Amino acid sequence: MQDEQPFKISVSQNALDSLAQKLAIATLPAPAPVTYTDSALDSEDWTYGVPRPTLERLLIHWRTQFLPRWHEHQAVLNALPQFTRSIEVDGHGVFTAHYVHKQSTHNPKGAIPLLFLHGWPGHFNEVSKLLPFLTTPPANASYPSFHVVAPSLPGFGFSSAPTKTGFAVAQYAEFSHKLMLSLGYTEYVVQGGDWGSFIAHRLAYLYGPKYVKAWHSNFPAGRQPTLTRNPLLYLQHAVTPYSAKEKKGLQMMQWFWSEGQGYFAIQSTMPQTLSYALADSPVGLLAWIYEKLVKWTDGYEWGDDEVLTWISVYLFSASGPETTVRIYYEIAHQGNMDEFARLWSPIPLGLSFFPHELVGGPRTWARTMGNVVFESEHNKGGHFAAYEQPLALADDLRAMFGKGGKAFGVVKGKDGY
Amino acid sequence: MAGHLDTLAKKLALATLPCPAPTTYTDSEDAQDWTYGVPRTTLERLVHYWRTSLLPNWREHEQTLNALPQFTRSIEVDGHGVFTAHYVHKKSEDRRRNAIPLLFLHGWPGHFNEASKLLPLLTAPPASSDYPAFDVVVPSLPGFGFSSAPTKTGFALPQYAEFAHKLMLSLGYDEYVVQGGDWGRHIGLGLAYTYPKHVRAWHTNYPRSAGPPQLLRNPLLWLQHLVTPYSAAERKGLDRMQFFTNEGTGYSAIQATMPQTLSYALTDSPVGLLAWIYEKLVFWSDAYDWGDDEVLQWVSIYLFSASGPATSARIYYEIKHSGRSKELINIWSPVPLGLSYFPKELTPVPKTWARTVGNVVFEADHDKGGHFAAHEVPHALADDLRKMFGKGGKAYGVVKGKDGY
User: Fold this and answer.
1) What b/e sequence results for A47-69 when a residue is b if at least 16 CB atoms lie within 10 Å of its CB, and e otherwise?
2) Would the ipTM clear 0.85, i.e. be above it?
3) pTM of the complete model
4) Do A265 and B253 make contact, defined as CB atoms within 8 angstroms?
5) Which CATH class is domain B67-240+322-389?
6) Cβ <8 Å between A277 and B273
């Protein structure tokens, strides 16, 4: 295995020129049909998807402001310390693993190693706001500190992409686990949302409790308890009425399955057919991802530069933006998702419930995910919790792993203090 | 149009292709491995051809598309304003005939020119034969081809039917018959149900049904279904339906929920649009040998359409969100109905299922052909229509004074 190399994103002039040329001749679609909502502005009517006035405004900003000053935005992405190294995955060859690695500022020996896993359309830089709370807690508080590793999953960001079929959850888990081992972290904890939560769940099952000591998820997508598998939860679910938050969560789930899973359906069946459009059209890619940034967050005020920086991680990724969507195909074809979801690990699990998450269903369902020792309810925040509500998420991790927390001291000799 | 062509040339010159899909463990070459969707090698070849051959010779291809006589006129749809209706209108070559007025309805990703091979067989049957002649009308549905697009939400099946019906009336056809596949089948049923005094019979090559016959709704068919085993062909059809349902409906899911989000990519990238449609042309046809010119002319109708290539996708959204439309898709109509069964249709249903939809007076089985029957196997489809509407056929003479002879 190759030694670690420091990495900085450095988009080629060719790529920037190509982008400029495409933006200059971008063709926009007709506006969506008018609906009978009271929203006065077209730009607020998201019934059919991203409204044209909104996308057009972003396009102009991209072309006239953002792209000409790309190097400033690239510097923002390069603020976190990044590296690459080789990681081999059984049956799939050697990958270039791209990752953020930031150690605790004041506590190199005792900080808890934490693996942060993104999903789709997330990326390594989603951790940027959360990270300082973990690596550099205020000196006067009694919060634990962490070493944080945030990889780009294979096919995303600046990691290389799988070239053989069948690179599914177990492979993403193997990749992540081997990365942690290669960094010298033989015992660690995991935090994940979206696919990151599925991968964390598998890491717990495959490599816990020997290596993975505890995990936390902000994507509590459990399964309905069954009498034979989860008798206590089943009973609890049968007799406890849903709380107001749970009812709202069920509504979100219903909306998602009825109106919000079109992207999931195409990405999990014919990702290559979709990929021509995503690879060839920056505007198309922008709309495809931006829709999620808005619909999946809880009133988060996205700045234009923020959005375009986010999209740029996809556009300029090592293997192209389209390789990211294949994770849906691979996981959908790996076998019975229900069975996989029910794999159970005894290691401590923490759950954070954010109201605007896509899968915020009954708490009894979420508890089937594992050995839940910590739960936290929030009044604000959506799918991209680490990015929208970094302090809230950090506080949850502090409560779970800090002194007095249910997962305090899970990693031998590294309790964060 | 010149601006369009220049832009297209520029976009093709700048086109960025994705990396190839992951290799699977089949023995086929990459170009034949469609597991993840359109293979890169195939698309790359088509893009190259588009850029270096078809586009520089565009005027020839435009002429091919202009071979059929086309017109526009205004059609108003209640609550949705006035539309520019673009349509082909070809009357029987032999003007002495009392030709049967036939409305041909396309679907997605079909278009008006799908009828081009079928049309002469209907309007100019051989003089020595005993086949009926038809006057054929082929509109571009609103949002497709060179018709204008709806600008208000809610333009669903009743509206598409109203549009098509008013077009026929405006052409002087008070009584007519309908032939349709894909959305054309749903609109055809909507027409038959809504305008039974005008739609005297209809035919579809997409004999779709929501499910098997139900005891209360179709007791005789239910009984028949109970006691008759599926034929080998029907079992194969059900397998195909399962495959389509599991692997082939992604496009429909996004088009029916967030069509506008999708439309940015399809509008901005000709290569993306090509892949999106070409996949259907291949998957949905029965090993049809698509020529490059053929494919690119087909996609060009979408690319150069009046309201842009992606407005057509909204029909999925509108129908999904219209309770009335979903009702109409499964409604029963007494208007005489003809069914043609093609083996590579998307959801080939057993006959007992298909018959639940209407007053079936004609059925025909085929060994070859898929979703785009009029384009793939025009003779087979024409023969079915001749049998159904010709002398001795169950729908002979349905249109007063216009029996086709």
Assistant:
1) bbbbbbebbeebbebbbeebbee
2) yes
3) 0.95
4) yes
5) alpha beta
6) yes
